[in-house]
DNA sequence: ACGCTTTTCCACGATACTGTTGACAGAATT
DNA sequence: AATTCTGTCAACAGTATCGTGGAAAAGCGT
């Protein structure tokens, strides 16, 4: 649904887009502010007024940099999620044992959530199935990235099932969802600098999923 | 913020409240419809118009049964969550081993999610920390129930740590969050009649958390 | 100091939602 | 048959939001 140069504002933006100077820097500033606001109020619950207020500027000024709330959201989330999906693929395809792959992937995901805090959580909270049709192209892309991560987990578990290094305690899909649940649910409790670090959480979750809680005695 | 009998509508409702007839039945119908709509669009994303449309009635008619969107939400969620919290308490206080407690609690929670589908998921999706101050009393109550469930898990794990039936792989709080994450994240993928049943999922998650994936060889 | 460009703001129209009001139709009651 | 009760509806006011237009302000190059 890209507008075909709707008179002004859009044209200004287009003009500033190619020859980018401090324009990109300001864009980034706005993104940072938006990340904070979206994290506090959720994407759908947050208004552009709130984002503008966070920076102490007028709401209309935002439209000089982003044509809509959706574009702002995309600019924020897309790149990081792409990185994350690539990371998952890389670990899944690496030539180590399924056990180690799983351990590393769990840890890496949690660390990524911590390092990019709170960016990925904003994305995680959004349920892509409910995104309006108007953004279905973008939504499909994002869902694809999501699926890549899911599939990385599923593949690893299936490999482990096949070489018998992992016990078959349920369908690979279900186990993968469980592990992803541990990781993704962290958006409700993880706060950097409070409680365990992301590394610690990642290690704990990896240990929980792989070795379990039961002691051998 | 309870209104003090705002003329009409409220008075009618008050009049119909004590002597309940088919009034309660219709209330339930509205609840059922609201559950569907809230599940599709999320609570904050859903409008009362949508709920009314689901039933093919006028939006204003809803106000004959519920004074606000919030009251509707409360009517839907409170009782079930209270039951769930009580269930968690009961299992945590039962005189069986921590291992069995954990297994049963995990399974019971997942089954409850399935049986009450999709009601509990509507609640899970709401992040209570972001509820407006206007409902802070209700919000506190609900957070309390949530905490009861959390604490049930934490206590069980700590018991297991102390009697050494569970390995100390991380703080009890962190492990509890991991398990709750597995369970709660099911709101993103669980659909009754599709894929694994809630019972199966519960068993798988309990096995995953307790015995882990790694095979002994 | 003067133009020109970049950036910001004030004001507007459009839309959507909430909660309320007073009136209306059918059933129940008298 | 008249009247109350129950449930419904169309319409209104109030608020919040989004995206746009045009004008003001700030930079900066000469």
From TrEMBL, chains A, B:
GO molecular function, one term: DNA-binding transcription factor activity
A Pfam family the protein falls into: TetR_C_24
Residues annotated as transmembrane: none
All residue ranges annotated as the HTH tetR-type domain in the record: 24-84
Domain of life: Bacteria
Coiled-coil annotated residue ranges, if any: none
Annotated DNA-binding residue span(s): 47-66
Annotated keywords: DNA-binding, Repressor, Transcription, Transcription regulation
InterPro entries: Homeodomain-like_sf (IPR009057), HTH-type_TetR-like_transc_reg (IPR050109), HTH_TetR (IPR001647), KstR2_TetR_C (IPR041490), Tet_transcr_reg_TetR-rel_C_sf (IPR036271)
Protein name: TetR/AcrR family transcriptional regulator
């Amino acid at each position: 649904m890209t507008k075909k140069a709707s008179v002004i504002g859009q044209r200004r933006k287009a003009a500033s887009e190619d020859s980018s100077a401090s324009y990109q820097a300001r864009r980034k500033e706005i993104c940072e502010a938006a990340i904070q606001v979206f994290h506090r109020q959720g994407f759908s619950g947050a208004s552009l007024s709130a984002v503008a207020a966070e920076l102490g500027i007028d709401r209309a000024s935002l439209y000089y940099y982003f044509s809509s709330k959706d574009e702002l959201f995309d600019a924020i989330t897309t790149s990081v999620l792409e990185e994350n999906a690539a990371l998952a693929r890389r670990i899944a395809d690496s030539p180590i044992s399924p056990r180690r792959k799983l351990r590393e992937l769990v840890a890496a995901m949690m660390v990524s959530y911590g390092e990019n805090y709170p960016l990925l959580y904003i994305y995680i909270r959004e349920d892509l199935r409910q995104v309006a049709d108007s953004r279905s192209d973008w939504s499909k892309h994002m869902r694809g990235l999501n699926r890549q991560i899911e599939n990385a987990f599923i593949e690893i578990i299936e490999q482990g099932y096949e070489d018998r290094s992992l016990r078959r305690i349920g369908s690979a899909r279900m186990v993968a969802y469980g592990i992803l649940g541990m990781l993704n649910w962290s958006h409700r409790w993880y706060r950097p600098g409070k409680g365990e670090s992301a590394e610690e959480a990642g290690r704990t979750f990896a240990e929980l999923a792989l070795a379990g809680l039961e002691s051998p005695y």
